[in-house]
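Structure tokens please, single chain.
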Amino acid sequence: MKPTLLILAAGMGSRYGGLKQIDEIGINGEAIIEYSIYDAIRAGFGKVVFVIRKSIEVPFKAKFAGKFEDKIEVQYAFQEMDTPVAGLTEFPPREKPWGTGHAVLVAKELIREPFAVINADDYYGVAAFQQIANFLTNLCAPDHYAMIGYTLKNTLSEHGYVNRGICSVDKQGYLTSVVERIKIQRDQYGEVFYPGEDETKHVLSEDVLVSMNYWGFHPSYFDALEQYFKAFVTENQDNPKAEFYIPFVVNKQLESGAIKLSVIPNDELWYGVTYREDKPIVVDAFKTLTKNGIYPPSLW
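Here you go.
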């Protein structure tokens, strides 16, 4: 059974100032997401599932219509603040979406096979798709997941802060914990840090492995997501900004001994459009990738 690629594309793009999921980046106006799909097809994926918002459905589908449906099965799931979840009859008022864990959960009914999860606006590199496809095809199990681990220095933006999952890995290459750190950036001396709740400066090694939200899961993960999400909603009735992240459930499973999670190191450069100022850099990067033969002049 071929693995599925689940693409999280329901983000608001508040720091970017627009619908970055479909913004033109490639030499023929391709979005970053198209390069991920191209890499997934040649790595052996059989289906792609997009998680989007109803409010962007029309422009999103128009952007990709007729491009790759003959090469890979395409399906859609929708993430809204009140997207139904089994066991929840109503949701408290919200100021923002529930987060990446909820985004994965809304695709539960569409996926029955091992699957990878990525962000729509991140470029992960050719090798990453080959690595995760090999894991999903040969090693994935109900108690064995994986993630692609990137070196922090390869994932920073020159134009502002980024949010990353900082990974702790044991000697066997298994994840022991992943902690979401927000507003990671370099200071004027080149030191990488994130601010604590009291604005205390916490320094990070630029060589630490981080999660770029590139995961390899068995479909059993959906059951754990559902269980913990229901508890999370109950516990955060009065916190309209609380977000349910993918690592939250992964950490719970690791702590209980329910799973092991292989961290697959990857030294490729990450490219993304967190900020509008990132776009020229990413556009130039794809020109170079095309010139070097990594991608054909016309993807489709």
